[in-house]
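Per your request, structure below.
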């Protein structure tokens, strides 16, 4: 392996010390003279290493006092945090978290993942708030946050967490879902384009000849689910179709029976809010002696493992988990470097995966 130039070795060593928090506010870095003596290099080499630190925004020189860590460098010295209330109940979120950890480790950083594991949504909300308080006490440098859902007032709890982090001057990046009232316009957001994905599914089903399309969503669903419904409805309208909205648990045979046991009005295609809901719906339709896709076509979102293990396999929208994590990580790093950047909303493409449930 080719040996690094000496100035790069010095730069790497000082950068690591900055990252480890050895130079808090008011504590000067070693002088160029001390670097020359310690590393037995020329003054030109020492100056080149210090200039590179300044070029990357890690240090600044104060005339007559020395060289000090910038606010950016001090923020980078802290750990990063993740708050994912759906981690224990959604397959895509462990993938995103694992990728975030891997990306951070590659750069020499670390993520702290808060313990939010209760199966009860209300309890998860309390756990998420506790994690945010812990992050404030630990002076976490920045946070990737998934807003809460499946509560009567999920926005209230999410705003409480956001304000808590704001008050502590901790920048955050939102992933997966936004808040519907525009409250999050001040924050960076990364997720898929759910409206476009819904349009893709709606056009696919209409193109397959579906005349009566329904959208199945659970009570107190997340805002992204309504975006998916909007997309499906928009595409269906292009084919002269109207999408019926069904709000029910996918295993609730009594509620679903009102929609599927009447042959004349029965939907011939159903888009479900997720693959998990779609797989459960297929089981419920089997109780009604309805076959998928012969009697009813079924599609989902996320491309989870259950989509491939269902019978038949599910047509779905693929969540680009690694891309979401990569964009969120880079966005947080950029935000740590410059808090004055305008907020950005980054919507990623999510492709359609066609399988047996709509063929």
């Amino acid at each position: 392996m080719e040996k690094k130039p000496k100035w790069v070795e010095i730069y790497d060593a000082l950068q690591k010390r900055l990252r480890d928090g050895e130079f808090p506010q008011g504590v000067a870095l070693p002088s160029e003279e001390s670097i020359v003596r310690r590393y037995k290099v020329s003054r030109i080499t020492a100056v080149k290493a210090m200039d590179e630190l300044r070029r990357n925004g890690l240090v600044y020189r104060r005339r007559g006092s020395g060289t000090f860590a910038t606010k950016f460098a001090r923020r980078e010295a802290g750990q990063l945090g993740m708050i994912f209330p759906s981690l224990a109940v959604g397959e895509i979120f462990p993938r995103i978290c694992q990728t975030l950890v891997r990306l951070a480790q590659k750069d020499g950083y670390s993520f702290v993942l808060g313990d939010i594991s209760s199966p009860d949504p209300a309890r998860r909300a309390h756990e998420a708030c506790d994690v945010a308080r812990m992050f404030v006490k630990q002076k976490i440098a920045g946070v990737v946050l998934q807003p809460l859902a499946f509560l009567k007032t999920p926005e209230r709890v999410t705003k409480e967490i956001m304000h808590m982090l704001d008050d502590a001057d901790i920048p955050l990046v939102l992933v997966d879902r936004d808040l519907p009232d525009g409250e999050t316009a001040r924050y960076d957001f990364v997720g898929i384009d759910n409206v476009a994905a819904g349009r893709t599914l709606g056009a696919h089903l209409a193109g397959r000849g579906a005349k009566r399309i329904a959208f199945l969503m659970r009570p107190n669903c997340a805002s992204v689910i309504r975006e998916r419904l909007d997309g499906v409805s928009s595409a269906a309208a292009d084919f002269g179709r109207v999408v019926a909205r069904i709000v029910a648990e996918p295993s609730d045979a009594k509620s679903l029976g009102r929609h599927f046991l009447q042959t004349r009005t029965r939907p011939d295609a159903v888009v479900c809010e997720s693959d998990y809901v779609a797989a459960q719906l297929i089981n419920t339709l089997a109780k009604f002696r309805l076959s998928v896709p012969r009697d009813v076509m079924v599609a989902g979102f996320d491309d989870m493992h259950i989509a491939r293990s269902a019978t038949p396999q599910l047509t779905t929208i693929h969540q680009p988990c690694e891309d979401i994590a990569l964009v969120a990580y880079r966005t947080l790093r950029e935000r740590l470097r410059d808090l004055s950047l305008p907020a950005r909303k980054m919507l990623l493409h999510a492709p359609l995966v066609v399988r047996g449930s709509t063929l």
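The mean pLDDT is 91.

Regards,
D.
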